[in-house]
Amino acid sequence: MMKNVVRAVLFASLAFSCAAQAMVVRGTGSGALRGGDLTDPENNGNASSYLNYNATFRSSVEPFFYSEGAFNVFDNVVGGGDAKWCCDAGNVWVEADFGTKRYVLTGFTATSGNDATDRDSDNWKILGSNDGVNYTTIFAYDKPGVSAWGNTRLQVNEYLANVDFVTPAAYSIFRYQSTHTVGNYMHQINELEFFGNQATVPEPATFGLLGLGLAGIIAARRRKAKQV
Ligand SMILES: [Ca+2]
Ligand SMILES: [Ca+2]
Ligand SMILES: [Ca+2]
Ligand SMILES: [Ca+2]
């Protein structure tokens, strides 16, 4: 009896650990990207300028599309130099802000840089926010000294909701943040793709219409008062 219980517990924990490690390696290079992600559904973003993207980008450092700047994670190109973000140290982040649109994240891809594995993050998160102040963790990777991409360079890892992370609430801002790298030195990452379903945003216009309605009633009363 006891043996069966132990077996059942072991099986359950094995099944759980398998489910928790379902990240899919799509391959290497630009061709392994899913493409058509939320930041550029048409795949026509300019690889070296802010042209043809559907989000506003921000970063803790190097906010540009060239010279290994942070926005290279959205430029649809996997490679070295101006296709990746490198080589800042410490706590670094880059985010995409979709303004009034909110999305329920269904998946994302994250791609490794072209050089030393030491520069890959070993402590990174995908966070969601609706105000740019309060952020909620959607996915967290924390394996000291171990890169999520192993030693393979330019590798596209894919993570899916309900498999690799719990389906989150709807957010208008998605942030990648790294606090530590394998070699505890310079940080690099090549590309990020976010995928999701647009959610209905609570209508602030309702209050606007209510306000207009009240203003109308007040104006009508004033008119009536004048007539009297
Ligand atoms: Ca576009
Ligand atoms: Ca893209
Ligand atoms: Ca670029
Ligand atoms: Ca890139």
From TrEMBL:
Residue ranges annotated for the F5/8 type C domain, each copy included: 39-197
One Pfam family this sequence matches: F5_F8_type_C
Signal sequence, start to end: 1-22
Keywords: Signal
Domain of life: Bacteria
Record's protein name: PEP-CTERM sorting domain-containing protein
Lineage of producing organism: Bacteria, Pseudomonadati, Pseudomonadota, Betaproteobacteria, Burkholderiales
